[in-house]
Structure prediction request, 398 residues.
Amino acid sequence: MKRVVIGLSGGVDSSVAALLLKQQGYDVIGIFMRNWHDESVILDEECPWIEDSNDAILVAEKIGIPFQVIDLSVEYKERIVDYMFSEYQNGRTPNPDILCNREIKFDLFLKAALQLNADFVATGHYCQKDKLESETGETTYRLLAGADNSKDQSYFLCQLNQAQLAKSLFPIGHLQKSEVREIAKKHDLATAEKKDSQGLCFIGKVKLPVFLQQELEPKEGKVFEIARDCFENNPLENTQHDEFSEENLKLISTEFDFTKYSPTEIGPHSGAHYFTVGQRKGLNIGGKKLPLFVLGTDTKSNVIYVGQGEDHPGLYRNVLKIENEDISWLRTDLELKLNETREYDVRIRYRQPLRKATLIKKESGLYIVFPTPEKSIAKGQFAAWYAGEELIGSGTID
Prediction:
């Protein structure tokens, strides 16, 4: 009998995933990961770890599987929270959920499961997995989008590798969320009606500035507005993809230098490290015809640049770059060779519709070229590329 260790989070998705594994004849062990202790930064009680742990225990008892708790809070702080602080301090926009999956759930948790002689680890993610067999007998695993388009979570797993995916199971990936709820109700699971968790992975719903103030102190700086009519159009916007030289790609993928666009000081802010590109809330500056959006930040000078309207040209870029060391190919057999190009569907944030784009590999890195400018591309975000429903690779935007 194959053994599966499942991460029981105290939510309905992992609960039903555990139930289905049990019904399929696996030897199932449920483990609750306690990765955060400081509840002072949590806004409400939607995701307190004690309640989640208790719900996970009730589910394990109902299903009839052994249950235990492991504490990974030290490693979580080192690998995820400290990473967040560092990224924001450097004016970048991190995605802790993606790192949490790569570093915690499918690394530390996977290693803990293997020590229990597990054949697989399982989670309640809405994604699917299959495999390809080559003529030489080599196996390549594929990560596919979840059947429920509104809940697909493959983007959050974009940094997994073949070794991690080989040991992973996603029991509810073929189901709709409504079906998961119905299964939980039918089997009287304690989590059947529980609301989905929100906020940071394993921490919960937080007010980000308050959370960041644990390490990043408020620091008053200046907000500058960039007028729409003085902003130059992207010089390469209409350039054909196959005409892009490496020099041009480097140029157009670079963040705008807002100092040359006649900025006008319009107010103060509490710290540039608390803001990200595309952000609208939190500026507390009124009296403008259109809403203000953050166009860029300079954490060294502690300056924020803003513009009026969500169609402000300073919000848009049509080329992004990923440094060589930050490129991750889940399908290593499809890795682009130098000067090779390929069309993929790309997203740079969760729930964003996939966009057609051209990937171009150069000596300086991987470039992703959109046919029309894309809104709010920020350093530190993850770009993930797909072929149809299959996630092919990903990387951190420079």
